[in-house]
């Protein structure tokens, strides 16, 4: 069979058995009702105990999770497809998402647009050894762990059992990374943060033009690579038709890219900073460590403004609320498609989940974020570190392609479809 007719399954992870089902099943109404009840209880609790920001962020998180699942919008799989067989379809959807994001972020950051009148700031982080090591580690980890930060959350929400292990050790790695972070950021070389908008003098208008040009260049490069390698294409996933498709997927990648960018911009205006994921993992794990007697409050990571975060309820943490919303949104989306089901695990994929989770957690702390906070949020905020994060994570992906078979994880080839 020629390579031009080979089909790549458009799944977030090739090991996910949900995608092997040819059709949608009937909606799992008991699960949907249960999910809505849990969401309502959490919403009421937040409305009566927290600032109005938190209930709004729960809704945004739910919509993020719903969108991620319905489009199977992946970062891990996008990098793997490009690195392994040269398929850049998903990476091009990233470029669309980022193009919409910078278009929305530019006026928000330039004029300080905020729903609640607070300060608005993007993610602009230093460039140094910490970023290089952390992003490279994260690239390896997400290919072994079965998903990135957002992918882990929505895979947990949809019932993929091994991802619960990935999440647990993602948290473990985040705590270790928080413990070691002062060494990486204070004792090792680093340059000051670089913003294409403010540091370079381009302004937000010039930075927007430069960003769009870079996204166009990356898009062109993926097309050139595809023309040369003739990789397998992505097939459609199970979906309802007509208006029912809104509720039962599958959404086109371009539609999800736009929705995710809009929701990230809304997050910026609601809480004053973009969407993030992994800082909450460090918080959850540190609270557990503190509960069992470890003096995490003395760590450099939990000094200054972070000290109050550690002592407060996790429900005061906006990233925690967003994460809970993503999990719940993915759960509702999978149940709506009749696709929620716990999956089988084995020793090899458990080992990969443990190692991958630790690498992602540790790497995210060193690199000032994950695929969401550093890559998506950083680039949308016109930070140079976001671009470098993407390059280094892609480099980690190339190495991980040689490691995946050791754990029984497949590596796509140009003449074979994903299976």
From TrEMBL:
The chain crosses the membrane at residues 29-48, 54-75, 96-117, 162-181, 201-225, 246-270, 321-340, 352-376, 382-403. Keywords: Cell inner membrane, Cell membrane, Membrane, Transmembrane, Transmembrane helix, Transport. It is a multi-pass membrane protein. Its main location: membrane. It comes from the Bacteria. It is found in: Cell inner membrane. The keyword Heme does not apply. Pfam families: Sulf_transp. Belongs to the TsuA/YedE (TC 9.B.102) family. This is Membrane protein YedE/YeeE. It comes from Virgibacillus natechei.
């Amino acid at each position: 069979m020629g390579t031009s007719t080979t089909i790549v399954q458009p799944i977030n992870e090739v090991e996910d058995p949900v995608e092997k089902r040819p059709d949608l099943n009937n909606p799992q109404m008991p699960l949907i009702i249960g999910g809505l009840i849990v969401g309502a209880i959490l919403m009421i609790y937040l409305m009566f105990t927290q600032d109005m920001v938190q209930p709004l962020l729960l809704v945004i998180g739910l919509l993020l999770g719903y969108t991620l699942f319905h489009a199977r919008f992946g970062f891990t799989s996008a990098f793997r497809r490009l690195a392994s067989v040269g398929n850049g379809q998903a990476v091009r959807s990233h470029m669309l998402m980022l193009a919409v994001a910078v278009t929305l972020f530019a006026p928000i950051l330039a004029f300080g647009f905020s729903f609640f009148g607070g300060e608005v700031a993007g993610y602009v982080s230093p460039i140094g050894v910490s970023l290089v090591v952390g992003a490279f580690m994260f690239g390896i980890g997400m290919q072994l762990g079965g998903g990135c930060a957002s992918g882990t959350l929505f895979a947990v929400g949809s019932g993929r059992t091994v991802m619960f292990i990935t999440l647990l050790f993602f948290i473990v790695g985040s705590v270790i990374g928080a413990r070691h972070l002062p060494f990486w950021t204070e004792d090792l070389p680093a340059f000051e943060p670089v913003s294409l908008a403010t540091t370079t003098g381009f302004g937000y208008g010039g930075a927007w033009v430069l960003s769009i040009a870079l996204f166009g260049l990356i898009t062109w490069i993926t097309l050139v690579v595809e023309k040369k390698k003739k990789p397998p294409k992505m097939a459609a996933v199970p979906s309802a038709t007509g208006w029912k498709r809104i509720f039962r997927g599958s959404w086109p990648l371009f539609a999800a890219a736009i929705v995710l960018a809009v929701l990230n911009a809304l997050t910026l205006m609601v809480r004053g900073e973009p969407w993030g994921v992994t800082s909450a993992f460090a918080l959850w794990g540190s609270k557990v460590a503190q509960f069992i007697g470890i003096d995490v409050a003395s760590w450099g990571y939990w000094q200054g403004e972070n000290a109050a975060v550690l002592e407060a309820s996790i429900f005061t943490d906006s990233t925690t609320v967003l994460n809970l919303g993503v999990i719940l949104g993915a759960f509702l989306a999978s149940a709506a498609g009749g696709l929620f089901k716990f999956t089988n695990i084995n020793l090899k994929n458990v080992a990969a989940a443990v190692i991958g989770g630790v690498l992602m957690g540790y790497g995210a702390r060193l690199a000032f974020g994950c695929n969401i906070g550093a890559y998506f949020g950083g680039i949308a905020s016109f930070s140079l570190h976001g671009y470098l994060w993407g390059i280094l994570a892609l480099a980690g992906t190339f190495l991980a392609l040689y490691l995946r078979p050791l754990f029984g994880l497949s590596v796509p080839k140009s003449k074979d479809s994903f299976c």
